[in-house]
Amino acid sequence: MSKHTITAAQARRATAKHPEARAEVNRAKAIRDRDTERTRMDRLIAALGSSIVYEREFQFDAARKWRLDLAIFAPALSSSWPNLTEPFVAVEIHGGARGKGRHTSTGAVGDWEKLNAAQLAGWMVLQYPGHMLDTPKGLAKIVAEIKRALGEK
Which of 29, 96, 119, 123 is the most exposed place for a label (fewest CB within 10 A)? Predict the structure, then answer.
């Protein structure tokens, strides 16, 4: 370790004494996580190609303000875009499947409620852990499944 590197335990102890520093660390983590999610979604959209009609963070329930990570609309219906409201395929990327994230705790219950509501509203919901988008094999599997859901080969 260099003289300016500290361990995670040292960082926790230091920020515990300084709430403003802890808040700054939390903001930095949120930005990092958001950037990682954005990069992963960019990678997925690029792999799907330009023939799909999609919207990121599509709000499918105005009352609950629920959003889908990626909404993909039926190719046959695409001509009516952007007024398209007909549901088709929703892709949800979950980030905490390997650690202490939302999807390993009681936070998952809220997601299940949202995803059940999406399915009842007519969406075909495909769910994946975020780390699958980090490998070519995982990305290829996701793309193949989405194209299959869209009726492509």
Answer: 29
